[in-house]
Amino acid sequence: MAELDLTREVHGFPGSPIDVDAIARELSGLWQAPDVDELRREAVVPSRTSVLNLIVHATDPDSAARVEQVVDRLAVHHPSRVIIFAVSHEPGDFSTDVDAEVNAHCLVRGAESRLAPCYEQVTIPTPPDALPYLRTVIDPLLLPDLPTILWWTGPLPLHDRDFARTVTVADRLIFDSLAFTQGAANLGRVADLCRAVADRCALSDLAWTRLRQWRELTAHFFDIPEHRWALDEVTRVTVSYGRGRGQDDNPVEAFLYAGWAASRLGWQLVRGERRERGGWEFLVRRAEGGELTLIVKPVTVSHSFHGALMSAALAARDRWRSAEFSAARVGDRSAIRMAIGQQGRTVLEHAVRCAPPDLSTLLVHELNQLGRDRVFEDALHEARHFADALRLWGIP
């Protein structure tokens, strides 16, 4: 499958940071380009196809280059009008000297195919302080009557008042909290943003999307009716997450997993404390009034698993029986070992191949979502209680 790349540059917007009208004219002019006419003469029909508007904020030129590669793979199933804001930290006068690049990518599938689906892409270099005017650029370039997705790479500018107003240009904001430098501290700010824009923009955290495998595996433990009693008699939950050597601690996935369990089972946080061996220990009240201990702790991993959930174990006991349910990455970390113990002995053990999904797979899942993810929102609001407790009690 060959790819035809039609590229046009829009130079020097005099008197305005970004000349949106010039970009729009170039987008229209792409379809009268000589390369397109050549396709038509060969009886290949370039199909201008879009199922959504995809806005991407890339934190630096290297990130923008990676984004373009991912977008190219997404276009097979989600052809879009793509607008990439590539943040540049190079010195320059962005008020008069901004050059945008407008192009169309047409996938020519071979001599037997008479159709070449195409998607449009606009790349706009922007200064780091461009947030206040992004919305005025985005609005006129959107294709009408299509969903709009804003994918923000890198940390969210949660302290900037303009950010909440900017994200409401989109129907969904996609971000990755593993990119946060202060993951736990920012959970509360993300929860506040979620509440502020809930009626206009849904939030999707790729850290939550990675947990889909873990949530499904955990739920499978209790598909067996004989195990469901344990959900009301949990006494201890232990969750571990990866911490790469020399990297900032980021327990967001672990807190989101704990928040998911708390929101589904009606748990309420009582208090927390720092563990001597690393991590945190929380006292949690169950829905019917009993209490359980929740431990969140780091384990040393390679860079590729930094911040990832590594294991989750749940212990339960009532007057007559006890049980343990555990799932943990083993070997090269591409498999998850699942085990069930009863009365102190293992009664079931097996492993499932469960490699972490790549970025394209995560994004495809989120692009297929419609509306708000209420389960994520509930988990997020419970997770922020654990993160807020660390600051409330002065726990580092």
- Strand percentage lies at 25-35%
Supply the number of helical segments.
11
Major beta-sheet overview: 9 strands, mixed
Structural class: alpha/beta
The averaged pLDDT comes out at 85
Global outline: elongated
| E-strand count | 17
Nearest-angstrom radius of gyration?
A: 24 Å
Q: Span between N and C termini?
A: 53 Å
Helix content: 25-40%
Would you list the SSEs in sequence order as H and E? EHHEEHEEEHEHEHEHHEHEEEEEEEHH
Q: Unreliable runs, pLDDT <50, ≥5 residues? A: 1-16
Could you write a compact summary of the structure shown?
By secondary structure, the protein is an alpha/beta fold. It has helices at 20-29, 34-41, 61-74, 131-141, 161-167, 183-197, 206-210, 212-221, 252-265, 359-367, 374-392; strands at 2-10, 45-48, 52-58, 80-87, 100-108, 115-126, 148-152, 172-175, 202-205, 234-244, 268-274, 280-285, 291-301, 309-317, 322-330, 335-342, 345-353.
Structure overview:
By secondary structure, the chain is of the alpha/beta class. Helices cover 31% and strands 33% of the residues. It has 11 helices and 17 strands. The protein has helices spanning 20-29, 34-41, 61-74, 131-141, 161-167, 183-197, 206-210, 212-221, 252-265, 359-367, 374-392; strands spanning 2-10, 45-48, 52-58, 80-87, 100-108, 115-126, 148-152, 172-175, 202-205, 234-244, 268-274, 280-285, 291-301, 309-317, 322-330, 335-342, 345-353. It is elongated and about 75 Å long. The relative contact order is 0.12. Mean pLDDT is 85; it is low at 1-16.
